[in-house]
Fold this sequence. Notes:
Helix content is 19%, strand content 33%. By secondary structure, it is α+β, with helices and mostly antiparallel strands. The chain folds into 2 domains: 2-74 and 111-128, no CATH class; 75-109, no CATH class. The termini are far apart. A 5-stranded antiparallel beta sheet has the order 2-1-4-5-3, covered by helices on one side.
Amino acid sequence: MEYGTVVKVLKGMNSAFNHGKYTLQYFPYKWTIPLVGKIYAFKDYEHALRWAADYSDVSVWEAEAEIFKEGSCMNCIDLAECYGDFWEWYSSFLKRDVSAYPSSLSTAYTPNGTVLCNKLRITSKFKDF
Length: 129
């Protein structure tokens, strides 16, 4: 597996969004491994900052990660097929069927600069918003 440095956006010490039982909690220098799916992070501070600026009460952290996939914008619908349990729950959380989205919708893609990680450990905080 490829390891590298990524940038993670957190709300408190959890994932930026509350995903119920799938919400991940982070601790400095301890590996976080998701029950299902992958951890979303950013390839650099600039991409993370651009995304985080739209939210309040979040922090931006440098992190080490085992990288699964990197891309400018990855199709979330393709990822949904791999993680049925999560996406079934997430559809009910959003109160709509995410698998029904046509892949051409911009909401079906990850933010620019996204890195998907198998596991991640935060190391140092850059900034709070």
